[in-house]
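cron nightly-structures :: item 1 of 1
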Amino acid sequence: MPIAKRIVAAVALAAAAALGCTAHADQTTDKLKATLQSRLPEIPIKSITKAPIAGLYEVNLGTQMVYTDASGDYVIAGDLVETKTRSNLSEAHLAEFNKIDFASLPLERAVKVVKGNGSRRIAVFSDPNCPYCKQLETTLKSVDNITVYTFLYPVLSPDSVTKSKAIWCSADRAKAWEAWMIDRHAPAAAASACDTTVLDKNLALGRSLDVTGTPTIIFSDGRRLPGAVSVDQLNGALASAH
């Protein structure tokens, strides 16, 4: 057989072998997922992949990573840390798995606040009665050159819905939002004719993205960060997102 044909045949054989390995891996993780889901039906399993440790598999639950053996007989809850770099692999992998396509977010359904040149962008799911959301708004006062898209996400109480409707129906939504969250000036009641169906759409969007708490920050590169973070954390995440 000519050399060229032998090279082509070798490449084809290697490709077939790789596909075979991939298919086998998929069958293993699919079977493991089915086993775990049947034994733990109350816990939604997003995906399962091989862990860096031989014999262990990483199970993505959406809000945390856990680990299991190949048979699904045992589950380990806790973070996996690489000692050489002191990197939290569980946290890093969860952030990667949970990335969101920022460009696909319906930003027209968010309250838009621009600071400075607005060059850096984040989206935030926030409840008007959430104390950590108010803490984040105070932190954002120290951050410049940013555009913040706040999706009103009233999940805490009926009053959260009332305030969200009032803010959305304000003539200046950004002003009404900041007046309440920072200065505690309650917005005027929403007019009965105001269309507030956007709130239902935001709630559905948040559920589809596994937003389980407020505030949840989404950066332009798709990474998310839950909770009221510090100025340093926020600036660091903004810097790495560009």
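cron nightly-structures :: done
Confidence is low (pLDDT under 50) at residues 3-24.
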